[in-house]
Specification:
By secondary structure, this protein is an alpha+beta fold. It folds into three domains: 57-66 and 340-418, conserved putative lor/sdh protein from methanococcus maripaludis s2 fold (Beta Barrel), CATH 2.40.420; 74-82 and 233-334, Efflux pump adaptor protein, beta barrel domain (Elongation Factor Tu (Ef-tu), domain 3, Beta Barrel), CATH 2.40.30; 89-229, RNA polymerase II/Efflux pump adaptor protein, barrel-sandwich hybrid domain (OB fold (Dihydrolipoamide Acetyltransferase, E2P)), CATH 2.40.50. It is built from six helices and 24 strands. It has helices at 2-42, 120-156, 163-169, 172-197, 254-263, 410-418, and strands spanning 57-59, 61-63, 66-69, 72-81, 84-87, 93-98, 107-108, 113-117, 200-202, 207-212, 219-220, 227-231, 234-241, 271-275, 286-297, 304-311, 328-334, 338-345, 354-359, 362-367, 369-373, 377-382, 389-391, 404-406. Strands 4-13-16-15-14-17 form a six-stranded antiparallel beta barrel. A four-stranded antiparallel sheet has the order 2-23-19-20, with no helix packed on it. A hairpin with a 2-residue loop joins β19 and β20. The longest helix is centred in the N-terminal third of the chain and has 41 residues, at 2-42.
């Protein structure tokens, strides 16, 4: 009997254990639900507070001034020579002498001897031509004597010789032929003298030698390259300018150029400042002048090109740093004056061309009409008046009517640097 009761008791304990587990789970769920209800009922309610400053924001301002200003166009330019030639001989021969200044980097003046070609053959040719000229001159003098005698004979035979034979009697055809031979001989002498003179190759202008292609003993002929020379009186800077900026550049007018030629005065275009920060000392700059606009766009950049002239490019008569050919250089062009505008730093022009103005200790957001922008400034036609206080400080809250207070002393400045008042 006891052995049969044991198997029946086991299922009863299992059911009791299962029921107990279920009750515990329901109790845990109930407690969790009750806790959530209590938390929701006791949670604080968020309230909306008007987002107005309790104190005005401290700001720095700058005063707008209306006037006439010249914009400055910052572009890049390439240094090029104004005079650039390849020197060639005009006669053939052997080089027998070279100037010690005919070396790369050497400086020569107009008329300096650069090299000499062997003149022996040309001296001989000149002697021959001179002898031919003397012979032609003697023949001409003899024929003139004969003509004088013929004139005396014609005087004795006056009236017996017709007008058609008169020139023959006076030997006019013979003397015309000999005079032509004389003129040809004289021209031959001049040509021989010219060839002899051309054996001395001179500098055509004040120049710097960039390269030399011959030495003593070289055999040269017309068309051969002797040296490359560039003029040192003036260099060009070819500047690339956006097409939209061209109306603000002042170019010399054609009639001004003609008048300046007669008066020997250089026509004035826009002033140009040249800088080369990588090579020149800080703050060093050179001056140039706008000469003209090149009539085509650069094929790669699609920018217009303007020609800037720079006098004394190597700084021989001043302490200015020398310009180096093919250098890419900063070019700042002074534009035409813009009248009746406010010039304002570009960083003070906010989104959508607006400007922050402090008026009656309140912020006003002004819409502006900007005529032109250069690298540093915006030139404003309308939207700002003379004397307006433009806000320089960046504000966290930007809206019309926000309270502002100008920084007047060091304590205000420290407070401003420490942070703005919380809204």
């Amino acid at each position: 009997m006891q052995m049969n009761d044991a198997p029946q008791r086991r299922p009863v304990w299992r059911w009791l254990r299962l029921i107990a587990n279920v009750l515990v789970c329901f109790a845990i769920l109930g407690a969790s639900a009750a806790a959530i209800v209590v938390i929701n009922r006791t949670e604080p309610t968020a309230q909306t507070i008007n987002a107005t400053r309790k104190s005005a924001a401290l700001v720095e301002t700058t005063t707008a001034r209306r006037g006439t200003y010249r914009p400055r166009l910052s572009v890049l330019g390439t240094v090029q020579p104004a005079q650039d030639i390849v020197l060639s001989p005009r006669v053939s021969g052997q080089v027998i002498e070279l100037s010690p200044r005919l070396v790369p980097g050497g400086m020569v003046r107009e008329g300096d001897l650069l090299l000499r070609i062997d003149p022996a053959d040309f001296e001989n040719a000149l002697s021959i031509r001179k002898s031919e000229l003397e012979q032609a001159q003697a023949s001409l003098e003899i024929e003139q004597g004969r003509q004088s005698l013929a004139e005396k004979e014609l005087a004795l035979l006056e009236g017996t010789i017709g007008e058609a034979n008169r020139s023959l009697v006076l030997r006019e055809p013979q003397i015309a032929s000999i005079r032509a031979e004389f003129n040809a001989a004289k021209a031959a002498v001049e040509r021989a003298e010219l060839d002899l003179e051309r054996t001395r190759v001179m500098a055509p202008f004040d120049a710097q030698i960039l390269s030399r292609s011959v030495n003593v003993g070289s055999q040269v002929s017309p068309g051969d390259e002797l040296a490359r020379l560039v003029g040192i009186e003036e260099y060009w800077v070819m500047a690339a300018v956006p097409v939209r900026s061209l109306p603000w550049i002042e170019f010399p007018k054609p009639d001004d150029r003609e008048a300046s030629t007669a008066a020997e005065v250089t026509p004035r275009g826009s002033t140009v400042r040249l800088r080369n920060p990588g090579s020149w000392p800080e703050g060093t700059e050179r001056r140039g002048q706008i000469a003209r606009m090149i009539g085509t766009l650069d094929q790669q950049t699609r920018l217009a090109r303007v020609l800037v002239t720079v006098s004394d490019p190597l700084g021989q008569s001043s302490d200015a740093p020398p310009l180096i050919l093919d250098t890419l250089i900063e070019t700042e062009i002074e534009g035409k004056p813009i009248e009746d505008v406010v010039r304002l730093e570009r960083k003070l022009v906010r989104d959508s061309d607006t400007v922050w103005v402090m008026k009656n200790e309140r912020l006003e957001i002004r819409q502006t009409d900007i005529v032109f922008r250069d690298a540093d400034y915006a030139y404003i036609r309308s939207g700002l008046e003379d004397g307006d206080e433009v806000v320089v400080t960046t504000l966290a809250t930007v809206a019309d009517g926000v309270g502002l207070r100008k920084i007047n002393d060091a304590s205000d400045r420290e407070q401003s640097n420490g942070g703005e008042s919380a809204p």
